[in-house]
Design a protein that fits this description.
single chain; 149 residues; CBS-domain; three-stranded mixed sheet; two-stranded antiparallel ribbon; 7 helices; globular
């Protein structure tokens, strides 16, 4: 039997606005301890972007050390990060699933985009929670090893 995202998702997320300072975004994510993504939402709570831990780490490295020490940086990207101050400056395009989607869709998005969690949005694009790999693997392992749902 296929599981729906709504059966595994958590109704929690870290929401920020495009105008939030990067420092404040990092602080909100660090305080949360349950989610890794910062979900950038508009005034109507609709998902407009995401900030991954990798993006926050890259911004922190450039800010702290003022140089680029990792091969995934390009010169242009480092200059962009040095001039970035707000969530909108480092956010990526949103990737999401809906509560009625199958969990397999979330797994595909995670694996194809190197993510550990994916935002869950309703039909209007409003954030209703997240689905993460811990929720998926804990339910899958429970079912595999116990034979129960």
């Amino acid at each position: 039997m296929t599981k729906k995202v709504s059966e595994v998702m958590i109704e929690k997320s870290v929401k920020v606005s495009e105008e939030d300072r990067i420092f404040d975004v990092a602080h909100k994510v660090a305080e949360d301890c349950e989610t890794l993504l910062a979900l950038v939402v508009d005034k109507k709570d609709r998902l407009v972007g995401m900030i991954t831990p990798k993006e926050l780490l890259k911004a922190a490295e450039v800010c702290e050390y003022g140089n680029v020490r990792h091969p995934f940086f390009s010169g242009r990207e480092a200059l962009h990060l040095l001039s970035s101050h707000y969530a909108r400056d480092i956010m990526s395009a949103p990737i999401s699933v809906k509560p009625d989607d199958e969990v397999q869709k979330a797994i595909d998005l995670m694996l194809n985009n190197n993510l550990y969690e994916v935002p869950v949005v309703d039909e209007d694009g409003k954030v209703v929670g997240e689905i993460n790999f811990l929720g998926i693997i804990s339910q899958s392992m429970w079912q595999c090893y116990t034979g129960r749902e």
